[in-house]
Structure formats: C-alpha cells, structure tokens
C-alpha cells in the first residue's frame, strides 16, 4: 500500500511539474498565434536554446540558477524581437512561407545546439534540494518549485494582459484585430511584444525542464506538440483554457504511465484532441 501511494504521489508531482512547463510553452504559442496569426513551429527550439543558455551560464560562468533563468528569459525575449522583425513579419499572411521559415529555423537552432554542446545529455543545478513528505512519502522539492514558478508566471501574464495598457492592447488585437486598429492600436508594436513574451516564457520552461530532467538538442519537440494540443483542447486565445488543459495534460503524462504504460500515454491526448475537434472545434474555453 505504501509503495502504491508513493508511486501515485510521485506521478502526481511529476505530472503537475510537466503541466507547468506545458503551460508556459502553450501560453507563448497561443499569444503569438492569436495576435500575429502565425504558427511558430520553432517555439520548441526557443525552449531548448533557453535551457542550454542557462546551462552555459551556470556551468561555465558560475552564475546562480535563478539569475541565469532571468538572463535566459531576457535573451530569448530579445531573440524573439529579432525573429519577429527580421523573419516572421515579412512572411506574415503567407501560411506556407511562415511554416517553411519556422521549420528552417528549427533545423538551424537544433544543429547549432548539436554543434555547440554535442548529443550528450546535460544537466543544470536543481531548483531545490531535498524532499517534502506527504502521508509518509517523500516527494522532491524541485517539482513544487517548478509548479510555483509556472503559476507565478501565468498570474503575472494574466495581470499584465488585464491591468496594463499594452496588455489590454494585446488582448484587443487577439479578440478583434481590425477593431483594435480602428481604435488606434498599432499592430506593428504589439506583435513584437507578443513574440518577446512568448519566447521568454518558453526559455523559462526549458530552464525548469533542464533542472528537473535532462537537456538534449531534441528536448523542445515534445513541449511543442503538447503546447499545440493544449491550444486545441483549451481554445485559441484562452489563457484559462491553456492553464486548465496544461494541468490536465501534465497529470495525464504523469499518472497514466504508472497504470497503463507509455503506449496509452502517447495515444490518450490524441484521442482527446480528436473528440474535442468533433464535439467542440473551438476548444473547451474558446468562443465559437
């Protein structure tokens, strides 16, 4: 009984930590998609590069983990600005060009990571050491710290969008681009902000993932897929939908393998996506 409880609690903690990472990726994806109207398929590589930057800062320069995460978020935000201005803005409105550019960017960033860091797995310092005890079962503290960071960033983004001038302008552009333009909101100013915020959130997610698990050049693929699934489940442009769907998907990835194995774990989210597309194509929290 104690062993079973230990497995379940560990699975829930892992699931919530993974859900937090998925949420950070999905929030950036849905922000970029809603405001810029582009599907940023290289978002997983931003996640990966942000994690490797934290690894470099902590291992080579001796910078503390939390400072390194902030630096990585700032650096990836600036890279997001460059990508929006130099790559995605010229392609805006041409779906095929956006997809082609995003795939090319994915290959470039992944190849750079392989050339710079190799194919070996890397690690960064733990978010926290030790364990917390629940019902006599020890659960690593770093999972809870990951949840807290993801929750804090989600709340910060929500408050920014709801309570600041630029946040409300971004929300208006996501809801009704033409109406926002008529009210004097400049989309050329809002789009780079969306890309910067999305890339910064992805970098934070990658850094947290590297602290809990391992860094590899292909580590961004799974979070990207999960982020896209979250957008379908939660509804495009819905922050609350992304958070709820992210937690749900994370718990599925944490708990289902314990009872049903990895095959069912990989299939279950896709089955749910198909069912939601059949019943409510706009997503659970989307507006039809």
Structural commentary:
It is a single chain. The protein is mainly alpha-helical and 288 residues long. The chain has one domain (2-220). The protein is built from 11 helices and 2 strands, in the order H-H-H-H-E-E-H-H-H-H-H-H-H. It has helices at 2-36, 43-59, 65-91, 95-117, 141-163, 165-175, 177-182, 187-212, 221-234, 239-260, 262-279, and strands at 131-134, 137-140. Strands 1-2 form a two-stranded antiparallel ribbon. Strand 1 and strand 2 form a beta hairpin. The model has no long low-confidence stretch (mean pLDDT 86).
Strand segment count: 2
Q: Enumerate the spans where pLDDT stays under 50 for 5 or more consecutive residues.
A: none
* Cα distance spanning the termini: 47 Å
- Tally of domains: 1
**How are the strands of the biggest sheet laid out side by side?**
1-2
Essential attributes:
77% helix, 11 helices, 288 residues, mainly alpha, globular, two-stranded antiparallel sheet, 2 strands
Task: Tell me the layout of helices and strands.
Elements: H1 2-36, H2 43-59, H3 65-91, H4 95-117, E1 131-134, E2 137-140, H5 141-163, H6 165-175, H7 177-182, H8 187-212, H9 221-234, H10 239-260, H11 262-279
Antiparallel strand pairs: 1-2
Helix pairs in contact: 1-5, 1-6, 1-8, 1-9, 1-10, 2-3, 2-4, 2-8, 2-9, 3-8, 5-6, 5-8, 6-8, 9-10, 10-11
């Amino acid at each position: 009984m104690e062993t079973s409880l230990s497995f379940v609690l560990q699975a829930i903690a892992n699931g919530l930590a993974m859900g937090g990472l998925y949420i950070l990726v999905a929030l950036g994806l849905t922000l970029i998609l809603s405001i810029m109207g582009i599907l940023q398929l290289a978002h997983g590589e931003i996640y990966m590069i942000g994690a490797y930057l934290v690894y470099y800062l902590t291992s080579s320069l001796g910078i503390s983990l939390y400072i390194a995460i902030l630096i990585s978020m700032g650096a990836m935000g600036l890279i997001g600005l460059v990508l929006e201005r130099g790559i995605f803005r010229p392609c805006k409105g041409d779906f095929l060009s956006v997809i082609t550019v995003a795939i090319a960017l994915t290959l470039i960033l992944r190849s750079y990571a392989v050339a710079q860091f190799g194919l070996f797995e890397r690690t960064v310092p733990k978010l926290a050491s030790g364990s917390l005890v629940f019902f006599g079962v020890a659960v690593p503290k770093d999972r809870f710290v990951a949840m807290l960071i993801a929750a804090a960033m989600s709340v910060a983004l929500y408050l920014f969008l709801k309570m600041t001038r630029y946040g409300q302008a971004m929300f208006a552009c996501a809801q009704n681009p033409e109406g926002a333009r008529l009210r004097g909101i400049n989309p050329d100013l809002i789009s780079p902000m969306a890309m910067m915020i999305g890339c910064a959130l992805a970098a934070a997610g990658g850094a947290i993932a590297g602290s809990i698990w391992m860094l590899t050049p292909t580590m961004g693929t799974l979070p990207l897929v999960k982020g896209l699934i979250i957008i379908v489940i939660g509804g495009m442009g819905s922050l609350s939908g992304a958070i709820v769907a992210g937690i749900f998907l994370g718990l599925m990835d944490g708990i289902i393998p314990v009872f049903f194995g990895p095959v069912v774990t990989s299939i279950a989210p896709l089955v749910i996506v198909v069912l939601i597309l059949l019943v409510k194509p706009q997503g659970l929290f989307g507006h039809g």
